[in-house]
Structures are given as C-alpha cells and as structure tokens.
Amino acid sequence: MRRGRLIVGGLGVLLVVAAFAWACTGLHAFGHGTTRYGEMVARATVPQRAATNAVAAVTFDFRGVDTLGEEFILFIAVIGVSILLRSLRSETSEEETHIAAAGPRGSEFSRWLAAGLVGPVAVLAAYIVAHGALTPGGGFQGGAILMAAVAAIFVGGEYVVLLTIRTSATWLDIADALGAAGLVVLGFGGLIAAGTFFQNFIDKRTSGLLTGGIIPLANIAVGLEVAGALLTVVAELLDQRLLSTRT
Amino acid sequence: MSVYPYLIAVWLFGVGLWGVINSRNYLHLIMCLMVVQASTYVLLLSIGYVNHGTAPIYQGISTKALVVDPIVQALTLTDVVVEATVVALLLGLVVQASKRFGSIDPDAIVRMRD
Predict the structure, then answer these.
(1) DSSP assignment of A71-134, as one string?
(2) Pick the CATH number of B4-53+62-113 from 1.10.8.60, 1.25.40.10, 1.10.287.3510, 1.10.3720.10
(3) Most buried in the list A45, B36, B68, B110, measured by CB within 10 Å?
C-alpha cells in the first residue's frame, strides 16, 4: 500500500513541479519586479505617513485590515493549541505534576547563561518594537524576540518556573487578547475619527519614536499579541514535557 | 537565465512535498511542510526584487532611491506568521497523537485504526 501511494504521490509531485516551473517561465524577468502598486506605496511612505519603513507602513497602515486578519489567524491557532493540549492536562492530577517537576533539570551553567540573557534580549525586543516605523523590525519581530527572552527563563530556571507555568498561562492569554484587541481598537479609531476602518487617524508628524500615526501603536499591540501567543504555545508544550516526565 | 531564482522556489516546493508524502514520522512531516512554505518566501521575495534596488526603508537614504517592492515583503511577513501558527497547531496534534496511539508514524497509526 505504501509503495502504491509513493508512486501515485511521486507522479503527482512531478506533475505539479513541472506545471509550477512552466508557470514561472511566464513571470517577468528576475530583477524587474516592482509593481505599480508597490512603487506608489513606497513613494507615499515618507511624505504621507512620516515613516521610513515602507514594509511597516504597508503592514500596519496601507494594508492594516489584512494584518488584522493575520492577527486573528494567530489568535485562533493559539486557542486551538491550548484546547488540544489542555484536554490532556486535565487527565493528570496536580500532585503528580509537582513530583515530576522535581525531576532532572539543566546544569548550573545553562541556568546562569539563561538568567544573563533575559535582560539584554528583552531590551533588544523593546528596541525592535519601538523602532518598527523607522528601521527594519516591528511588532512581529520584536514580539518573537520577547518570546525568546521569557522562554530563556522557562528553559534556564526549569525547576522553579515550570511549577508556575499554569498560573502564568492565564497572564499570557490576557497579553495575547489585549494585543489583538488593541489592533481592533486602532481600526475602529480610524472608522470613528476619520470615517474609514484602519484609516491612519493620529497626527503623523510628531517627532521621535511616535512618528507615523497609528504605526508605532499598532507595532506595540502586535508585539504584545505575538509575544503572548508564542509564549502560550511554548508554555503549553513545556507543560506537556512536564506531564511526560511522569511516565 | 533570469528564471533561475523562481526555479529555486519550485525545487524547494517539490522536495518538501515529496518529503511530506514519503514521511514516516510526523515531526519529519512538519519539517517538510516548513520547506514547502520556505519556497513561498523565495518566490515572493524574488518576484519583488529590483536590480540594484535597496531595502524599502528610507532611513538615511534618499526618498527617490530605487527600492525593492515593499508589498511582497509585507506578504512574506504574513507568510512567516502563518507558518509559525500552523506549525504550532500541528505540533499540538502530534502530542495528542503520541499520547493516544503511542506512535508518531502515520502508517502505524493507520494500521492501528484498522
């Protein structure tokens, strides 16, 4: 049965790849890529939005509605992971888990390293989120880095922190939800103040990090949501590891 | 000549898809799916590339500078986020499968259900 499946599947892959390659020959030549829309958006970023990062301007301003959809994909996927894994958790009692947590842990050195990394990595994350409208980076990237900072605590301080994962999961859920709600509020702010959903309704010409109107605020909201979402996933998966050390 | 960057995307797509079909382990299968998704990054970024263009970030460069297409870069960002969520969800399913069947080999699980 497996062989038959591989032959049929292999033929399918070959056909799809051939059609894909054939389709690629109809694309414009590599290196002449700019579309009219992309060019217009890139030109409008600095004069109209007072931001310098055109990608952030597309993500959070010109195509903010799409990012809202993307945001909810992330949100719903995290709910899915939680539902999948928490149903397993209820099968084991609290007491058993506490015993498991006292099991093997990381070396002294790895814990010192993790503890030393938390601060600098968190500062880097805040920097990347705050400068999202100006330089490469933004909410998604900064949120992922912030996740790494907190995940370092989970990994390094295994013994202490794993016991508190269950309580911290609630806080992570709240951060996740607050971030998602923040972006929705920004969208409706545009609807109320400027008449269009996700219109950039805040004064864009302020100086410093707040330049770009809603872009820096959207970056912060998304950063909070991404960090909360990814950490929920990490916490849930680590919790599974905790359950499995029992058996 | 100028079609080669697109063919790299085609190659990644094909290799990843073959890995998904040929997989004997769900974790391996998820990795292969990530390779398939990597092909979309390569395709998107090569579609938006402009010869001698720089990143679409006007920090310290002229606003008239030649830049690559920011739209496809934003799309790639969306793509990365969606990939991360899909992988997280799939890993959750793998944990469930492992608990329920004691195996993460797709074929073994199918045999068990028969």
Answers:
(1) HHHHHHHHHHHHHHHHHHHTTS-HHHHHHHHTS----HHHHHHHHHHHHHHHHHHHHHHHTTTT
(2) 1.10.287.3510
(3) A45
